[in-house]
Amino acid sequence: MSLHTTAQSLATLAAEPGHEGGHASLSPYLTGGGALFILLLLLWITTRFNRDR
Length: 53
Prior knowledge:
By secondary structure, the protein is mostly helical. The protein is 60% helix and 0% strand. The chain contains two helices and no strands. The chain starts with a helix and ends in a 5-residue tail after the last helix. 0% of the residues are buried.
């Protein structure tokens, strides 16, 4: 798969709902909030187990 084909398929996948692609049921706020929660959880786990003993 060439770089151009990959970029084109990703752009089509990320298109706004109602256009050529996209997913109407995914809320950007829910996606962003979920990503933030997961990153904060990973940060907490990393700092919890990385203490000097």
